[in-house]
Amino acid sequence: MGRAEGMRDVEVDAPADVPPGAPEPGPDVARRRRRLLRWWPVALVLVAVVVGSQVLHDARARARVAAARGHPEVVGYDVGPALPVSAADPDLVWNEPGAVVEGVRVGSASTDSGQPRAVEGVDVSSGAVVWRSPVESPEEAAALRSVQPPWCTVGDPAGDAVTCFVQDAPTQEVGDDSWQLGAPVRSRLLTVDARTGEVTAERELAPVATAFVVEDVLVRAELVEDVVRVAAEDPATGDERWSVDLPVVTGALEIGGSPSPSLQVTERHVVAGLGGHAWSLRRSDGSVEVTSGQVWVGRGERLVSSSDRGRTSHLHGADGRFDVATAGEPVTFGLDDGSVPALDLLVDTSEEGRRVRAVDAATGETAWEYPVRGAAYGSVLLLHDVLYGADAEDVWAVDARDGREVWRSPRHPGGEPGPTQLGTWLQPLTDGRALLLAEPTGSDGTEGVLRAWSLTSGDAQWSTTLPPEAGGYVTVRDGVLYGGLPDPVRLGG
């Protein structure tokens, strides 16, 4: 068989625009023309491959950004150096968002000190206040001057009832312009009709108490004599599901000025704390799982405890049945997308220097370590198998699977202002494209700068002075970037 038909030499006539009488192309020119014509399909294929690869890369990048923005801790729009400012609802930004029933958000109303605190219903779509119900008389408000806002959670998912926890704690002046919160003198639960604001029931708890509804259970913790009583009940019927008394260590708790018990409810656990002690209980039946000075519910519902302020942590698994010691305490996540689920991530502040440590959650064996510089503290982001953070000198990205450094870049590039004041909490954020870090630049925290680095390369992208309304602090709530204390503003978007 001869040469394939598709690869035959082709004789080409001279172009039509060749002037009459022009000399014919020489043999070398003719050969080059034939060669180009022979290989032009290959060139087209190469161009198509390059263009297709770029299109595929761009599509994957867009998909990664979209996936990141599916998390409420990620800004849901591109953030740039131009930061338009708009008003924001303080209750939605800084306070608990409240309970939403049939389009009405029930939560605490903004009140001035000495004025009656109140619960209000706000139309979610319009922002209009539908109703407002005081939870104390003007005389009580003037006497206590309590700043503890009511905390409302859905009490009956099938109905219109909302449960609001109200605690009375007097405000005590300790100087010309300063005050402190005294010990609670009364705690109660109110059942509120979300449609009308009518208080349909009121229930007294122990003065030092905490209570709220999570999904289908109302959990309460009360200091009763020398025990912390933790109980779970049906929020609709009040039927108790379980109750357990946790003894408070003698001398560890001073009742005067003590805070209320802390409560955390997760998918599998209830963690209560008071007076430097913490207990993890099984959510299903109240069985005590772990007792220590501090107890965290970590990744994958796994329990971590510490009795020496985090210098040593103990890993207990999701059921609390084993105890493996390791150095450090759990990192503070600004975002955890569930990458590398088998590893627990800790920060070790031992004398050998600070470092992030990844340990096998089943064995406690160290998988990798990454050193961080200086005595800077803050939260980290875990996104698409990469851990992002900041230290006293740099921002950085680490492959969370093996601890390999992906990139490290200066926090203050290009001769910008030096390291921030000691004690600044570093809180990296992201919009899915850039790593964002805000830092106060004024001594009083009223000024600040926002910087951005590429998530993929670590290259510095831009730096901008935060608007005066934002001060030196920003945060993310439900995909929106906010700034400003105590009066928040929305930034960008």
UniProtKB/TrEMBL annotation:
<feature type="region of interest" description="Disordered">
    <location>
        <begin position="1"/>
        <end position="28"/>
    </location>
</feature>
<dbReference type="InterPro" id="IPR015943">
    <property type="entry name" value="WD40/YVTN_repeat-like_dom_sf"/>
</dbReference>
<dbReference type="InterPro" id="IPR018391">
    <property type="entry name" value="PQQ_b-propeller_rpt"/>
</dbReference>
<dbReference type="Pfam" id="PF13360">
    <property type="entry name" value="PQQ_2"/>
</dbReference>
<feature type="domain" description="Pyrrolo-quinoline quinone repeat">
    <location>
        <begin position="350"/>
        <end position="469"/>
    </location>
</feature>
<feature type="compositionally biased region" description="Pro residues">
    <location>
        <begin position="17"/>
        <end position="26"/>
    </location>
</feature>
<dbReference type="InterPro" id="IPR002372">
    <property type="entry name" value="PQQ_rpt_dom"/>
</dbReference>
<keyword id="KW-0812">Transmembrane</keyword>
<feature type="transmembrane region" description="Helical">
    <location>
        <begin position="39"/>
        <end position="56"/>
    </location>
</feature>
<feature type="compositionally biased region" description="Basic and acidic residues">
    <location>
        <begin position="1"/>
        <end position="11"/>
    </location>
</feature>
<dbReference type="InterPro" id="IPR011047">
    <property type="entry name" value="Quinoprotein_ADH-like_sf"/>
</dbReference>
<keyword id="KW-0472">Membrane</keyword>
<protein>
    <recommendedName>
        <fullName>Pyrrolo-quinoline quinone repeat domain-containing protein</fullName>
    </recommendedName>
</protein>
<keyword id="KW-1133">Transmembrane helix</keyword>
